[in-house]
C-alpha cells in the first residue's frame, strides 16, 4: 500500500541557484545534499513541515534530468510515495497494468530504495516509490 507523499522532485538547471531560491522561499536551509551517481544527479532536500522537497540537477548532459530540463524546462519532475514493501508494490502495479521502469528497486537518495512508474499510465505524472533502507 502507498503511504504518505514522501517528497516532490523538482528538476532544476543549477542546484546552487535553486538552493538559494528555496532557502528564501521556505525560510530554511536544505537539510541534506547528495550525489546519486547512478542517476547522474546532485540533489538537495528541504523539509516543509512533515513533507520534503527534492531538488535535482544533472551532473551529465545525457542524464534523465538533463533531458527532462532540455525538453520541458525546470519544474516538478515526479511525486514520490512511501511504501513499506517496494518489491510487492512493483508486482502489484505491474499486475494492474502499469509500466514499471525499474523491475528491481535501486539505491536512491536519502537512504531509500526507489523505483519508478512510467507517466504514460499515471496521467502524465512520473511516480516514484520509496522504501527506507534498513541496514
UniProtKB/TrEMBL annotation:
Q: Which domain of life is it from?
A: Bacteria
What terms describe the molecular function in GO for this protein? lactoylglutathione lyase activity; metal ion binding; methylmalonyl-CoA epimerase activity
Please report a single Pfam family linked to this protein: Glyoxalase_4
Keyword NADP attributed: no
Q: Which SUPFAM superfamilies match?
A: Glyoxalase/Bleomycin resistance protein/Dihydroxybiphenyl dioxygenase
Against CDD domains, the record matches this protein to: MMCE
Q: Which PANTHER family match?
A: METHYLMALONYL-COA EPIMERASE, METHYLMALONYL-COA EPIMERASE, MITOCHONDRIAL
Q: What name appears for this protein in its UniProt entry?
A: Lactoylglutathione lyase (Glyoxalase I)
Species of provenance: Nonlabens dokdonensis (strain DSM 17205 / KCTC 12402 / DSW-6)
Amino acid at each position: 500500500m502507498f503511504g504518505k507523499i514522501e517528497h516532490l522532485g523538482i528538476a532544476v538547471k543549477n542546484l546552487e541557484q535553486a538552493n538559494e531560491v528555496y532557502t528564501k522561499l521556505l525560510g530554511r536551509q536544505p537539510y541534506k545534499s547528495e550525489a546519486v551517481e547512478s542517476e547522474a544527479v546532485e540533489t538537495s532536500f528541504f523539509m516543509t513541515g512533515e513533507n520534503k522537497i527534492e531538488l535535482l540537477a544533472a551532473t551529465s548532459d545525457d542524464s534523465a534530468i538533463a533531458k527532462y530540463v532540455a525538453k520541458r524546462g525546470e519544474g516538478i519532475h515526479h511525486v514520490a510515495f512511501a511504501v513499506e514493501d517496494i518489491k510487492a508494490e512493483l508486482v502489484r502495479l505491474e499486475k494492474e497494468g502499469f509500466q514499471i521502469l525499474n523491475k528491481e528497486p535501486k539505491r536512491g537518495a536519502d537512504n531509500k530504495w526507489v523505483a519508478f512508474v512510467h507517466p504514460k499510465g499515471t496521467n502524465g505524472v512520473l511516480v516514484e516509490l520509496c522504501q527506507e533502507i534498513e541496514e
